[in-house]
Design brief:
The complex is a heterodimer of chains A (285) and B (263). With 285 residues, chain A is an alpha/beta fold. In chain A, 35% of the residues lie in helices and 22% in strands. Chain B is built from ten helices and no strands. In chain B, helix 3 (54-86) runs parallel beside helix 6 and helix 8 (162-197) packs antiparallel against helix 10. With 263 residues, chain B is mainly alpha-helical. The chains are: A alpha/beta (285), B mainly alpha (263). At the A-B interface, helix 4 of A face helix 7 and helix 8 of B.
């Protein structure tokens, strides 16, 4: 890959001929998804997970993807992360040739490595990229401080609370200084109070350099508080149903949740989501 | 009284009480001293055997057989298990066969092993190695296959590939189950070596016990039992120490959690 050339996630081999035909306008957005479809083939049947998802994310934009459980929103993130190939369609990252890693992932809190200390977890991405030892340790220590874990560098995850563990997960991704941050329900396994604290903290950390973020969640208020835009997905097979622009000024904090405008927008999104949630429940029943 | 101390007192006091009851039962004639020598006699016998060096010689022989056999079996089992765990087609080809062979009690194939390896040390070591190998290979394979997929995904997301993936994710993720396998294997190695020493040898704790039966000296037999029990406890402690050593993240850092202090 040449510097400055947009990075295209290769679709599955048999599809590449078809997918490559259609050029996409480059440089317009940080991320461009065009007709991304994912079908899971099990022995018994074919399960469509994503149906022609098209989405553009601007540079520095914080996009939240909300949908009922099983709508394929996590699959969408895994396609963006290059962890699973799309069945068809195109995924393009316009990197601008900065030399930074393309993307870093924040998983749910239990995805940090229990056999590594906080420091070893945080510097893991740097280590895999061959950053020299002294340099990666300095960078990791700085991020450990920024997420409020000073003094815990040598602790193992099992000695930490869920909220502290997810701070490690956040630092592990942020320390790589990637082009794009991909977050897969990072608050999903946390209790309500910890979640509030961590959302506030995430806003503060993001505000520092306003990276492009794709944030998957099932929590509407979380999406409205954090996002510039909320993309609502349908029940399986997932496809964008509606997009809501979040008009609130930045920098934001938790206090925003007390405003009537916040409640109105959240309710509006819920009204659109309700039918999909019911459909998803019926499908699993 | 402190709850923990109370428990420890019970843990030590109960076996002491049982031994005392045994002594009394033999002396009053409730237990037949020809089969169940009084503990006092067993202890004196053990002391004499230790002083003369007899039992140490036999113990050392057994320990060497176990260590060499266990070492060979573990090396082979770990290597094969790590490969089987990572290469799916190989697993599909070999796992059913390994599982089928595993269920054969290893003592049952002792005659075959003696046929192949002769009556000397080689056959004792071989049977221990075979028993160890099967337990270690099965546990190691399962350990690698059972590593939480989320960790593998996180590893891949941050750019770990092949050897680094193995070193940073697969191996530490599999270690707890691997160490459990080692513990089981060492316990089984002790059982198998004693059984193997019952036949066609003049040395080892197994032989010593068998010989005590032949010469009708039950107090020596019981002394042998004590030595075996000590070996068992020691091997368990060694594996435990090894486990803490290679998996510091599992260190029990919250002891006595949930215990109520009675003041």
């Amino acid at each position: 890959m040449q510097p400055g050339e947009p990075y295209r996630c290769p679709p599955r081999a048999e599809e590449s001929g078809r997918a490559a035909k259609k050029p996409i306008s480059p440089m317009a957005s940080k991320i461009v998804l065009k007709d991304v479809t994912k079908v899971f083939q099990t022995r018994a049947r074919v399960v469509p997970a994503l149906d022609r998802v098209s989405l553009e994310v601007a540079d520095g934009e914080f996009v939240c993807v909300v949908g009922p459980s099983g709508c394929g929103k996590s699959t969408l993130l895994r396609i963006l992360a290059g962890l699973v190939p799309q069945t068809s369609g195109e995924v393009v990252f316009n990197t601008g040739g900065s030399g930074k890693p393309l993307h870093s992932l924040v998983f749910q809190e239990y995805a940090i490595f229990p056999w590594k200390t906080v420091l070893q977890n945080v510097l893991f991405g740097l280590e895999m990229r061959g950053v020299p030892r002294a340099e990666r340790e300095t960078a990791a220590q700085a991020w450990i401080e920024r997420v409020g874990l000073r003094g815990f560098a040598d602790a193992y995850p099992r000695q930490l609370s869920g909220g502290m563990r997810q701070r490690v997960g956040i630092a592990r991704a942020f320390v790589n200084d990637p082009e794009v941050l991909l977050m897969d329900e990072p608050m999903g396994a946390l209790d309500a109070q910890t979640r509030l604290l961590l959302m506030d903290e995430l806003l503060r950390l993001w505000e520092a350099d306003r990276k492009t973020v794709v944030y998957i969640t099932h929590d509407i208020e979380e999406a409205v508080l954090l996002g510039d835009r909320v993309v609502l997905m349908t029940a399986r097979p997932g496809r964008p149903k509606a997009t809501f622009t979040v008009p609130f000024a930045r920098p934001r904090d938790i206090a925003l949740m007390a405003s009537p405008e916040f409640a109105r927008l959240s309710y509006e999104i819920w009204e659109a989501l309700r039918d999909e949630a019911i459909a998803a429940m019926a499908a699993t029943a | 009284m402190n709850g923990a101390r109370h428990d420890r007192l019970l843990a030590i006091g109960t076996p002491l009480l049982l031994v005392a009851l045994w002594e009394v039962a033999v002396r009053t004639g409730i237990l037949d001293a020809r089969f169940f020598p009084p503990p006092s006699l067993v202890l004196v016998t053990l002391y004499e055997l230790l002083a003369s060096g007899t039992i140490l010689k036999h113990t050392l022989t057994t320990v060497v057989r176990v260590l060499v056999g266990f070492g060979i079996g573990t090396a082979a089992g770990l290597g094969s298990g790590l490969i089987l765990g990572t290469v799916q087609p190989l697993r599909a080809a070999l796992e059913p066969t390994i599982s089928a062979l595993y269920v054969i009690p290893k003592v049952a194939i002792l005659p075959l092993v003696m046929l192949v390896f002769g009556l000397g040390e080689a056959s004792k070591i071989a049977i221990v190695a075979i028993a160890t190998f099967f337990i270690v290979v099965i546990n190691t394979t399962a350990a690698v296959v059972g590593v939480e997929p989320l960790y593998l995904e996180a590893g891949r997301a941050f750019g770990a590939k092949r050897l680094r993936m193995f070193r940073h994710i697969l191996l530490p993720g599999a270690l707890p189950v691997i160490v459990t396998g080692l513990r089981l294997a060492l316990g089984t190695a002790l059982i198998v070596v004693i059984a193997a020493e019952f036949v066609a040898t003049q040395e080892g704790i197994g032989y010593f016990i068998w010989h005590a039966w032949n010469t009708l000296r039950p107090e020596e037999m019981f002394a042998g039992f004590i030595v075996i029990a000590m070996l068992g406890i020691l091997s368990y402690a060694v594996i435990r120490w090894f486990g803490h050593r290679v998996m510091p993240w599992l260190e029990e850092d919250r002891p006595r959690e949930g215990r109520i202090d009675h003041g």
